[in-house]
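User: I'll paste a sequence; please echo it back and then give the predicted structure.

Assistant: Echoing your sequence first, then the prediction.
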Amino acid sequence: MLRDNRFSDLILGPEGAWIRPQENTPLASDEGCTPAGGGNQVGSSLPGLLPIPPSMEDDVSAIREMIASQRPGKFYILRYDGLSLRGSRRESIDGEWHFLRRAMEGEIPTLQELGVHRDYCRLLLTPKLVRGGVLVIGEPGSGKTTTASAMVSERLSLLGGFALTLENPPELPLHGAHGKGICVQVPVDGDDFADACAQALRDAAANMVLIGEILDPQTAVQFVRLCVIGKLVISTVHGPNLVLGLERMADMISGASHGDRNGALSMLADGLSVVVHQSL
């Protein structure tokens, strides 16, 4: 059974399926499986991939049927047999591919439970942090969204308030009451992200906004605009370290500002309150 295995990724192609177990974790039933990359195996550039074993073929078939019936967009969340899978759809020369990453199940952990140092926990949860941007930088799969979501949940529980999340798609169960506060999760199509951020500028009720991920210049600009109008804005961006993550933000902002890099750096300096880099 798929749910009985600890895995990070599931890849479905037109002619096969592959799974990536978590590091140092063998599959519950992986007899005869060999890592992808040998011979003519697909996935030679993805270390640790294994062909789906026979014991999981029924699960994979059921997931394929769910995808075919739901016809999700380019990015989506699929819930199957107690699992939450974050998916992306790609068209290739041989058909449709789906890349599914296992998301966290159950309640959102606290920052301390995630292993965040107590000094950073105090910094991210202090009542004095009421406006400006909190940017979580890290490589894909490093848990940036989980950290950002944990911060939103814990601040609502401790301090109250109203949070609005803009995500594509919503990943963790933030919607609803959290102690003294409440959160509303809004699914946003990828092409409408900047517009959704612009609408949040006019939403006086929300004192905290989570932007799931900054991927384009327009969203980067709207992020810093939200930061300087008095809201606490939390988001994530890809980057192997703090410097390169901030440089990527500056590049995106300057790209939307006719190449004005000095202006982009000034906007970041005015808008950001906390920058965190994390890795697993």
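The chain has seven helices and 13 strands. The first helix runs from residue 57 to 70.
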